[in-house]
Structure formats: structure tokens, C-alpha cells
Task: structure prediction
Amino acid sequence: MVQVGFVGMGVMGAPMAGHILDAGVPLVVYNRTREKTKDLSQRGAAVAETLAELGNRCGLVFLCVNRTEDVRECLAELTRDAAAGTLFVDHSTISPRAAIEIHEELKAQGFRFVDAPITGGSMGAQVGALTVFCGGEPRVIAEAKPTMAHYSKRIERVGGPGAGQRMKMANQIAVGGALLALCESLAFAEKAGLDLMQARDLLAGGAAGSWAFENYGPKILARDWSPGFSIHNQLKDLGYCEEAAAEVDAAIPGTLLVSRLLETMVAEGHGEWATAALFELLAEKGFDD
Amino acid sequence: MVQVGFVGMGVMGAPMAGHILDAGVPLVVYNRTREKTKDLSQRGAAVAETLAELGNRCGLVFLCVNRTEDVRECLAELTRDAAAGTLFVDHSTISPRAAIEIHEELKAQGFRFVDAPITGGSMGAQVGALTVFCGGEPRVIAEAKPTMAHYSKRIERVGGPGAGQRMKMANQIAVGGALLALCESLAFAEKAGLDLMQARDLLAGGAAGSWAFENYGPKILARDWSPGFSIHNQLKDLGYCEEAAAEVDAAIPGTLLVSRLLETMVAEGHGEWATAALFELLAEKGFDD
Result:
């Protein structure tokens, strides 16, 4: 059986790798900050000293890092001593354009690639119920699928190279809009003197209802801004949305508005807060449109 | 038992009145266009010739009309020959400020009033599963509650005079935002060459999910712009949202954006289309931000 590797022991990657281990699959892991591999090492994972070593030892390598440039840097090292045909599956959310380029570059070097961004959040990673949007060749995706199934409830091919990232952009556009709808509505409710708990409860059960109302509503009531998904990370994703929208000439005025509002929060030093903290900006500080 | 009356046999009012009748409650109805009372008349409702007659015959009167000025005009006629203490319950979505004024004016004339806007849409009215946001005195609301229960799944007092309308505004702010999130996301998906049915299905099941995705998504796939809830009607509500937000100094930048986009559609002659037709504007025609 092919040796599996996993790069990136972050909020998402660590529990995903853990699910692979729990399934009894031998695993080699790597993280830039080695400390973060400790838990998985104690649970039986081998820890590679370098990315090149991991790439050399593994035939199927998953990445879950952050930005486009992180993926590129990791792949440059991973491919250094990797065997021809090694399959790299990238769970990071990066630029769709860059994902297409990476597909082409790796193919030219004799490797294989799937862009496979995930959705479902840190909770989805912990319980192993992520959704994976896969872009690439059907047979290649099928090869990675049994391993991904250890941490996913749904794995779908959505098209060729880059399509996974494009679907993730569509997802993030909707997530950003739902966030604004939630925060703007509850901020109005509070300013209008309504009971916030009653408002969240009543609105969540009707035509205004959303995953955001269900999951972020309670955080807003508790004023709990610990991420979860930080404003910095959402802005990273929305930047890729803007780039992708410009490429296909799509109008995303709501997404641009959400970006502008979140940038205001970063400027005020709140980039590491959870995205639902957008409520604060609208409810307490006001916002000059 | 007090005689019940119902004014306004529109898309919402007609099925609501029908549920009262179906519960075996004697009912007097009125509609400006008399033709629309025909079905209920055949099912046993008495039809009043004028609003003054209905107000004279009934001790508990429900209204479900359109704008603030419609409610005011109806009440002016309804109260002409009405007995002291008559209770008027307004299910229309109108200005919260006007609702407070109506509370005061009717009280000064010896009548009683509840602002009681509804949510749940035409489908909710048909199956008798509306949610009612009530503003007014608890004892007065309690008096109307058994009758409202015939067409509602949930009836809650949310505060004093005008609070029902303020809660409806919070609801419409969230509904507008969810609409934009849905339309912008699917319009991007289409332009990005993704399969629209797969996109709707995948996104609806995750963190982007919403009532709008579930209920309007299929209409977008079918390009079915028959209302439901028309752009004209949503703009009416969003206008009241803007007025209410200005009063309490709430920031609603997303709502203002939705209004602007929907106004563009009205200018293009599509005011009677369903609100989900916002997808068309974003997907096919583009929008210069």
C-alpha cells in the first residue's frame, strides 16, 4: 500500500491527520513548527525532518497549509526527492488560477495533483465530517478518496484542475454574505431595543435562517470572538474570491462590501477575532457607509 | 363570542382567513376588489359591503394589506362606526414608527391595537405555519392569540408598540442579505463554469447553507421568477428597514446594497419578478459596482 503523508498540523490539518491515524493507516507527518507534530507522533505517526524527506517517503501526500505561496513553497521542497507519479492533494484554500498553474507544473515534472479545498470548519475537521471539493482527473481523485473518507462526509469532483478552488470561492462568497446578513440583522435588533436572544431564535427558524444564524448566533450572544475562523483567514479567502471573480467577469458587490468591513476590523487590531465579531463593528461602533 | 373580521384577501390574507373559517369560526371579510372574497364567501364567510360595516360588526379585526398608507386608510374607515374597545391586529409589514403612531391614535379613540407582522411566506400562509411578531400589551395580544393560532406555528410578543414591526425589519434585513449571498454565490459559480445544480446542492449542505439556498435555490436553477415574494414587495419592506435603521442609528450597508440592486431590476421592468431573480442581474447582465 502506498505510504501516506500529511503536511500542516494546523487547526484543520491536525485533526484530519488524526482521523487517518485512527483508521489504522500508517502516516508520515510534517509541520514547520515541529512542536505541533508531538501529539500525532505520540499516537504513532512518523515525523519527517524535512519536507523533502516526507516527499521522498510518501506516494500520497496531503497538504493543509494557508496561502498560495505556502503551498508553492511546500511543493518545491516536497517534490525535490519524490518518486515519479507521487500524488499531491492540496486541502488549502488558495487562488484557483494558481491551482491550475500548480496542476500544470507538477504534471510537467511527472507528478499528479488534486486541488481539494475543504469546508465544514474546525468542528467538521474534529468530527471527521468535512466536505471536499475536488478539481482534477477523476481517476486521480478516486485514488485519494479512500484516505480522504476518514475525515469527510462528502467528497465530490466538481470539475477539472482548479474547479475545487472555484467551488470553494462560491462557498466563501455565500459564507461572507450570510455572515453580513446575520451580523447586520442582529446589530439592528440590538439597536432597536429588541431582545437579542429572542431575535436570534425567532429569525433562525424562518426565512432568514442560515447555518450562520445557528452556529454564529450563539457566539454573538455570548460575545465570544475566539476563532474558529478568523477575520484574517476570511479576508485571505475573500481576496482569492475577488481575483477569481475578476477572471470570469462575475459581479460580487456583497463580497466586496464584506471585505471592506472586515478590513476595517483588521485596521482596528481585531484580525485574529472570529468573523462573527463583525457584529461588534455594526452594533457598537457603527459604520459610516 | 366576539365577532371576527378579516380585511385583505391577498396572497397572504386569503389563506389566513381560510384557516379561521376552517376552524369553524364565523368570519366577516372585506376586500377592496370584491371578487377576491368570492371563494371565502362560498366557504361560509359573510362579506361586508364597506370597511365601516365590517368595523361595526366585529370586535376583533385582522388586517393584512400592503403599505403604511393602506393600513391608515383602512383603519380610518374601520373605526368609523366601531364599538369602543374593538381590537385591531395588523399583519401588514409597515413602518415601525407609523405602527407606534397608530397604537397611540387608536388608543386615544378608545380602540386597541397590536402590530403583528408575519413571516413564513405564501407557503407558510397556505399551510397555516406562519410566525407572528407581536408588539403591544401582553393582555391584548393574548386576546387575539387563539384566532391567530389557526394560521400560525409561532406567535410571540417581542415588546411594546412597534416592536413587532422592528422585529420584522430585523428579519427582512437578514432575508435580504441571505438573498444576495445566494444569488451572488450561484452567479459566480455559473460564470466560473461550475455545475449549478451541484453547486447549490454542495453549498446548501455546509456553512453557506440557508433557508434561501433551500427554497430559492431550486427556483434559480429553474429560472422561475414567478412570485412568491416580488421585488416590489421586498423593496417596500427594505424602505421601512432603512427608515427604522436611521431612527436607531443602525448601520445596514448590506441592506442598502440589496436595495440598490433590486431598484436596478425595477428600472429594467422586473419589479413583479420573484426576488431570487436578482441572480439574473448578477449572472447574466453583470453589474457595475
Remarks:
- Chain A has two domains: 4-160, 166-285.
- The two ends of chain A are 58 Å apart (CA to CA).
